[in-house]
Design goal:
This protein is mainly alpha-helical. It is 50% helix and 0% strand. Pfam families: HTH_31.
């Protein structure tokens, strides 16, 4: 069995809180639509436990499940602004006018003495 990711086994608290908040938001949306775990799972073609795991903020749940849940409840447009480069103030400040399509390869001599 491959080793578990450190992100899964010991996530930063901000990551854990964000995924729990997303799960709670999805639960609220599902309940407002009067959908059971089984009904939402059937729309996505997954087991109902997968929906419960997502709503409980289980970090090993696939991003595709979260996106599928948004789609099934007509909430997918809300995903459009997540990590939108136009809203990335830090990235824009760091990049200046030098927009790249790929990161530079890290190699050569190290300045860490």
């Amino acid at each position: 069995m491959p080793p578990r990711s450190q992100l899964i086994s010991a996530p930063p608290s901000a990551v854990q809180e964000a995924i729990k908040r997303l799960g709670n938001n999805l639960r609220t949306a599902r309940l407002r639509r009067n959908l059971s775990h089984a009904e939402l799972a059937a729309k996505l073609g997954v087991d109902r436990h997968v929906i419960a795991d997502a709503e409980n903020g289980k970090l090993s749940t696939s991003a595709g499940v979260y996106v599928g849940m948004l789609w099934a409840m007509n909430l997918l447009p809300s995903l459009a602004d997540v990590a939108n480069p136009k809203n990335d103030e830090e990235g824009l400040a760091l990049s200046g006018l030098d927009e790249r399509e790929r990161a530079r390869q890290r190699g050569g001599p190290s300045n860490a003495f």
